[in-house]
C-alpha cells in the first residue's frame, strides 16, 4: 500500500528563473504565503524555516536544489503539538517549460499514517499556489486569508 501524498499542478505565465526566485526569496514568499516567509540558502543540507510574525511555523532541511528546475525539502509543522510529533514529510517543486508557460508541479509526500499534516496542507497548498500564480501573472496576490488551523494558532498568528 502506498503512502498518501498531495500533488498540485498549475501553469504559470512566467520564466523558470522568475518562478524559482518567487519560491526561494524571503520577501517574495511573504507576499503570496499570507505573511509567512521562507528562509534558507537553498543548498542541499541547509535548514529551511517558515516564519510568521517572528514565530517558526514549519521547518525542514533542503534535500535537493537544482535551480531553476527542482527544489525539495523536508517539512515539519512545528506550530501544532501533534503535527510536530510526526516524522518529516517531503515537498518537491518541479519547474518545466510547457506550452509557453512554466508547468509547476508540487508534490508533498511521505506522510505518517493518520497524519494531521496531510489534511492541513491539502487546504493550504491550493490557496498558496493560486496566490503565487496570481502574483506572478497580475502583480497581485489573492486577498483571501487562510482559515486558522487550530484555536491556539489563530490566537498566536
Can you offer a commentary on this structure?
This protein has 5 helices and 7 strands, in the order βααββββαββαα. It has 157 residues and is of the alpha+beta class. Strand 2 and strand 3 form a beta hairpin. It is globular and about 40 Å long. 24% of the residues are buried. Belongs to the AHA1 family. InterPro entries: ASHA1/2-like_C, START-like_dom_sf.
What would a concise description of this structure say?
The protein is of the alpha+beta class and 157 residues long. Helix content is 31%, strand content 36%. Belongs to the AHA1 family.
Spatial ordering of strands, largest sheet: 1-7-6-5-4-3-2
CATH superfamily: START domain
In the CATH hierarchy, what is the architecture at level 2? 2-Layer Sandwich
Number of domains: 1
Shape summary: globular
CATH class: Alpha Beta
Structural class by sheet pairing and helices: alpha+beta
Quaternary structure classification:
single chain
Order of helices and strands: EHHEEEEHEEHH
- Mean pLDDT over all positions: 91
Using only C-alpha atoms, the radius of gyration works out to 15 Å
Number of strand elements: 7
Report the major sheet: 7 strands, antiparallel
What portion of residues is helical? Answer: 25-40%
- % residues in beta strands: 35-45%
> What is the terminal-to-terminal distance?
37 Å
Give the low-confidence spans: none
CATH topology category name: Alpha-D-Glucose-1,6-Bisphosphate, Chain A, domain 4
Number of helices: 5
Amino acid at each position: 500500500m502506498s503512502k498518501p501524498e498531495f500533488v498540485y499542478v498549475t501553469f504559470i505565465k512566467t520564466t523558470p528563473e522568475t518562478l524559482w526566485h518567487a519560491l526561494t526569496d524571503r520577501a517574495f514568499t511573504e507576499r503570496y504565503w499570507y505573511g509567512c516567509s521562507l528562509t534558507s540558502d537553498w543548498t542541499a543540507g541547509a535548514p529551511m524555516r517558515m516564519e510568521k510574525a517572528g514565530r517558526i511555523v514549519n521547518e525542514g532541511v533542503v534535500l535537493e536544489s537544482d535551480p531553476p528546475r527542482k527544489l525539495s525539502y523536508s517539512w515539519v509543522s512545528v506550530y501544532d503539538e501533534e503535527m510536530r510529533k510526526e516524522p518529516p514529510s517531503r515537498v518537491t517543486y518541479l519547474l518545466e517549460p510547457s506550452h509557453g508557460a512554466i508547468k509547476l508541479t508540487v508534490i508533498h509526500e511521505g506522510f505518517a499514517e493518520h497524519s494531521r499534516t496531510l489534511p492541513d496542507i491539502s487546504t493550504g497548498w491550493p490557496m498558496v499556489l493560486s496566490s503565487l500564480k496570481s502574483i506572478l501573472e497580475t502583480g497581485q496576490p489573492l486577498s483571501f486569508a487562510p482559515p486558522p488551523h487550530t484555536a491556539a494558532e489563530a490566537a498566536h498568528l
